[in-house]
Write a structure and sequence with these properties.
mainly alpha; 3 helical TM bundles of succinate and fumarate reductases; 4 helices; 78% helix; 0% strand; elongated
């Protein structure tokens, strides 16, 4: 008789390794939620900056503050990651990049490229 491994009584979440595709997918969802949640803030700041010269100065001061810069960097990461992961999903839908090596490579590219691109754009501002 074949002996099977005992199933764990409880899951040790520190020992579970998620596949790279799952991490990319979770990042895609998190970035979408961040974009959705920060959209009202962005609309408010745009409205404030267009109301008057004083409102524009206020918005500039917000973005010059440390917290404002951090939120702007987070938003840029979310936009870039969501764009790259979305392009990856679209290419998979049209049967491009469905071979396992390329599939894993594109997942790594999305994860490793999003933050440096966002950082470069953030520095350019």
């Amino acid at each position: 008789m074949i002996e099977t491994k005992q199933r764990p009584i409880h899951l040790d979440l520190r020992r579970i390794r998620m596949p790279i595709n799952a991490i990319t997918s979770i990042g895609h969802r998190v970035s979408g939620v961040l974009i959705f949640l920060l959209m009202p803030v962005g609309i408010f700041l745009l409205d404030l900056s267009l109301m008057s010269p004083e409102g524009f100065v206020t918005v500039v001061e917000i973005f010059n503050a440390v917290l404002g810069k951090a939120i702007l960097l987070l938003l840029m990461w979310a936009l870039i990651h969501h764009l790259l992961a979305g392009l990856r999903c679209i290419s998979i839908d049209i049967d491009v990049g469905i071979d396992k090596p390329l599939f894993l490579k594109t997942a790594r590219i999305v994860l490793w490229a999003a933050f440096p691109i966002a950082l470069l754009l953030w520095v350019a501002l």
